[in-house]
Write a structure and sequence with these properties.
Number of strands: 5
Helix content: 40-55%
CATH architecture of the largest domain: 3-Layer(aba) Sandwich
Number of helices: 8
Strand content: 5-15%
Structural class: alpha+beta
Order of helices and strands: HHHHHHEEEHEEH
Largest sheet: 5 strands, mixed
């Protein structure tokens, strides 16, 4: 196995980081159609140093989409310039207006709505996604709610039982992200998914929904493939 010296190369941006993350996600400035499939590229590269990776990226990176464009440093600079414009001309004015209009009642109503109303909506949405969609499509799988006492319970909403194994389901409303294509699991969540897979044998799938409709329908085929793998005892691809 390749051993790489652990040294942090990424820059810290302090309080600006939240602004950058929000704007990049909202305006899709770091999507594969802008910067390429970076994780797939680095896994293909298997760099022994940061310099190896940097050279490989600019040599092999293309935007995803119907018309693929070769990526160079100029492309990344242009994306940075677009980020700056979006923050200065749109994000800051929108936030300043929100700050000016903010009231104590807004804050009280928000906490109540978050705790009571959204929890109930989420409960109904989860039930519908499972009972009206997954359970009907995969009738040979027994779907059960995740045990609240388990360590992974906060990240896994349901288990799909297949023989003596199980895969996990996390259900998220599309409204949690303006575009579910922007969603990226946190490092903590990735670790939770890995621990689940070690314990139960199956992968964890994230389903994005609006009401009872599954938006990322491609996940259904991925789940089907996983069910077959768990049934046959095949190794993970």
């Amino acid at each position: 196995m390749l051993k790489i010296k652990k040294e942090k190369y990424s820059k810290e941006f302090g309080k600006k980081e939240k602004v950058f993350n929000y704007t990049c996600q909202t305006y899709q400035l770091s999507r594969p159609n802008k910067v390429g499939a970076v994780m797939a590229l680095i896994r293909e590269c298997q760099p022994k140093s940061f310099e190896d990776w940097e050279r490989w990226y600019f040599k092999n990176a293309y935007t995803e989409g119907k018309t693929k464009i070769k990526i160079d440093k100029k492309n990344l600079t242009e994306l940075g310039e677009r980020l700056y414009v979006k923050i200065k001309e749109i994000v800051i004015p929108e936030w300043e207006e929100a700050f000016r209009q903010l009231t104590l009642k807004d804050c009280i109503d928000y906490i109540y709505n978050l705790t009571i109303c959204r929890t109930y909506d989420g409960f109904l949405r989860e039930k519908s996604v499972i009972n009206d969609n997954l359970a009907k499509r995969f009738s040979d799988v027994n779907f059960i709610e995740s045990d609240p006492q388990l360590d992974h319970a906060g990240d896994i909403d349901y288990l799909g039982l297949v023989s003596d194994k199980a895969f996990g389901i996390q259900i998220k409303p599309v409204t949690a992200k303006a575009n579910f294509g922007n969603y990226s699991a946190s490092e903590r969540m990735k670790k939770s998914f890995e621990e689940f897979e070690k314990k139960f044998g199956g992968k964890v799938f994230i389903i994005f929904s609006i009401d009872d409709k599954i938006e990322n329908e491609e996940v259904l085929q991925e789940i089907q493939t996983e069910i077959v793998r768990l049934k046959t005892g095949a190794k993970k691809i």
